[in-house]
Structure formats: structure tokens, C-alpha cells
Specification:
alpha/beta, binds iron/sulfur cluster, 349 residues, eight-stranded mixed beta sheet
């Protein structure tokens, strides 16, 4: 009880620190509003370029509880997309060929009982499908053992987080035993042809920093990952995406509890890159929540910032209106515009 109270006190102090940082007392570092930075880059108000990616979060249930999860996902989350909402998504895809790629996220999307049906229906509409697979789900239960074959059969592109090519750093961020199971799953994916140039079956890995710092260069990290994973485990993959941790949800709690919020935000703001701002993923994406509400991106989804449009639910999807909306930005957006930029597909510049 005592430690819970102490944790609450630390959090309350930290919330006060956010206030000071955002309002500039004591001549300290002031957190410049993100919109001011956009204005200075001639990007305000931020508008879509062309919506092409239809991102769907089909549930917050997950077999893992990673420290830095921005979805706050875990085994006890109950929010899951119904087949009815999936049918509404399919209807939208049928009527809008502009939405070329469907990006399925979770939680662990595979834990939704309608997951496979949904993938099959999307493929019938001839769309490219990417799935955020956490790797360990493949070994979590025998009902998932054949996932590599299912993915292969439907030519699904897989993107999987592997915070590092060593056990200690991966397990520290994602939980004990995650590294070992991730390696086994990657070997199974390789066995069916994933990650091999000649098969066209794409396997991407995702790196994100273990602490309150920005990720190193994506290309040098990719070389290092490829060398080490091949040498140690015989694993091959296509691309490494290096992603900046977003100051929201569980990662924000970590920053506040560890007293790193101010220095992390300072790093993000001082690394603001106008070219990265011009390429943020919300400019070509619309993101559907498990309950059918629409968002600019997965991060706004977790902050419950619905799209700034008359159309806020998949039930009454209006492409033109959404393609002309003003994107809702906030201080968390600095996570997408620091350095080489960051999005679901890694660096953006
Ligand atoms: S596997 Fe992904 S969705 Fe699940 S807890 Fe980890 S980061 Fe969150
Ligand atoms: S957090 Fe979302 S809304 Fe903000 S810049 Fe990134 S993708 Fe766009």
C-alpha cells in the first residue's frame, strides 16, 4: 500500500512538472506548442496529402504487456472489434479503391476470433495487408501454430517488434522469455519463406529505444541487426524500422516516474525536423478504432482524439470529407518529427 501511495505522489509531482514545462515558469525550458513549429514550417493547419492506408485496430487484447506499449494492451483488455464493425470496414474498402493498404494492429490482432476471416475478406478485395505480429503469439497456443502458413497463403506483410538482437534488452522491455520465443517464431517464418528476397514474403523488424533517448540511424542499425541475427540464429529479414518512443500511455508513465520527461521532450523538440513533419504518417492514413471510431493515427486513437470531421465513425465514412480534414496535433506529435522522423514504417525522411 505504502509503495502504491509513493508511486501516486511521484506521478502527481510529475504531472506538475508537465504543467511547468508547458507554461514556462522559472525561465526553464519551455515546451513550444507543436502547432507553432508546424506554422513556422508552413504546414499549419496540417492536412492529409492523400489517404491510402486504412489502419484498423481490431482489439486491445494481447498475450504480452510490454513496458513501452502505447496501446496499454494486455491479456485482461476486453476491447475487441466485432464482425459487424469489420463488415463496415469491408464496405468502405469496397467503395474506395484509393485505400490500397490495410494495416491491421492490436493488441495482438490474431487474438480477435474473426481475425482470419477479416484477412481473407480483405484479400478478396485485392488489397495489400500488413499485420503487426508480436511474434510470441505464434507459440502462445496451438491454435496459432499455423499462422506462418496462413500469412504465406494470403501474402501478408509482417511487421514485428524486436527491441534488440540480444535477450537482456528485449526481455527487459517486453517480458521474460519474449526474446527466446521471438527468435523461434522468426525461424518458423523464415522456414516458410518470410524474409527471403526471392519469395516476396516481407518480414520487417522494429527497433525502439530502451530508454529516454532517440533511436540511432536506421540504416546502420539494420546492418547490425542483419549481421547479428544471421550469425547467432540464422535469421533473415527484409527491413528494420527504427521508431521513436511516443510520450504517451505506458511510456509517458515511465518518463514521469523516472524523472526523464523534461529531458526527453527537450530532445524531441530540439530535434524537430520540418521534412519529417511534412511526411508524418497521418497525412496518408486513416485509423479505425476497435469500436469503429476514426482517428488520424494509432497514437491519437490511444489519446481518444477522434478525427476533426463531421464523419467520426466507420458507419458514416465520407472519404472526401476525411481527405480534407485538419489533422489533430498535440505535443506528442514531436515523437513523429524528431531527427529522421518516425512512423509505423520507421524513419520518414
Ligand atoms: S506486443 Fe505490442 S500490443 Fe502487445 S503489449 Fe507489446 S507493444 Fe503492446
Ligand atoms: S502523433 Fe499522429 S497526428 Fe501527430 S504527427 Fe504523429 S501521426 Fe500525425
Amino acid at each position: 500500500m505504502k509503495s502504491l501511495k509513493a508511486a501516486h505522489n511521484i506521478l502527481a509531482d510529475a504531472q506538475q512538472q508537465i504543467e511547468i514545462l508547458e507554461h514556462g515558469k522559472n525561465g526553464d525550458f519551455v515546451l513550444v506548442p507543436f502547432e507553432d513549429k508546424l506554422r513556422a514550417s508552413n504546414l499549419f493547419p496540417l492536412k492529409p496529402t492523400q489517404m491510402e492506408i486504412f489502419q484498423v485496430n481490431i482489439g486491445k487484447m494481447c498475450n504480452q504487456t510490454c513496458k513501452h506499449c502505447h496501446v496499454d494492451a494486455g491479456p485482461d483488455r476486453k476491447e475487441i472489434m466485432t464482425r459487424e464493425t469489420m463488415q463496415q470496414c469491408l464496405e468502405v474498402l469496397k467503395n474506395h479503391p484509393q485505400l490500397k493498404t490495410v494495416d491491421l494492429t492490436g493488441g495482438a490482432p490474431e487474438m480477435n476470433p474473426d481475425f482470419r476471416w477479416f484477412v481473407e475478406e480483405i484479400k478478396k478485395l485485392n488489397r495489400h495487408v500488413t499485420v503487426r505480429c508480436n511474434l510470441t503469439i505464434i507459440l502462445a497456443n496451438k491454435k496459432y501454430y499455423d499462422l506462418p502458413y496462413f500469412y504465406k497463403e494470403h501474402q501478408v506483410e509482417i511487421t514485428s517488434s524486436l527491441p534488440f538482437y540480444r535477450k537482456d534488452r528485449t526481455d527487459n522491455q517486453r517480458g521474460n522469455g519474449v526474446f527466446e520465443n521471438s527468435i523461434k517464431s522468426l525461424q518458423l517464418l523464415n522456414e516458410v519463406g518470410y524474409g527471403k528476397v526471392e519469395t516476396g514474403l516481407i518480414l520487417n523488424l522494429v527497433y525502439n529505444a530502451a530508454g529516454a533517448f532517440l533511436p540511432p540511424s536506421q540504416s546502420s542499425l539494420e546492418k547490425e541487426y542483419k549481421q547479428e541475427l544471421k550469425k547467432q540464429f540464422g535469421i533473415e529479414f527484409n527491413n528494420l524500422f527504427s521508431i521513436t518512443n511516443m510520450p504517451i500511455s505506458r511510456y509517458l508513465d515511465y518518463l514521469l516516474m523516472s524523472g526523464n520527461y523534461e529531458s526527453y521532450m527537450e530532445k524531441l523538440v530540439s530535434s524537430y525536423n520540418p521534412s519529417a513533419a511534412a511526411n508524418v504518417m497521418c497525412r496518408n492514413t486513416v485509423s479505425v478504432g476497435w469500436d469503429g471510431f476514426l482517428y488520424d493515427c494509432d497514437f491519437n486513437q490511444m489519446l481518444e482524439l477522434k478525427v476533426n470531421s463531421k464523419t467520426t465513425n466507420i458507419r458514416n465514412f465520407n472519404f472526401d470529407e476525411l481527405n480534407n480534414r485538419t489533422i489533430r496535433t498535440g505535443q506528442h506529435c514531436y515523437g513523429c518529427t524528431a531527427g529522421a522522423g518516425s512512423g509505423c514504417g520507421g524513419t520518414t525522411t
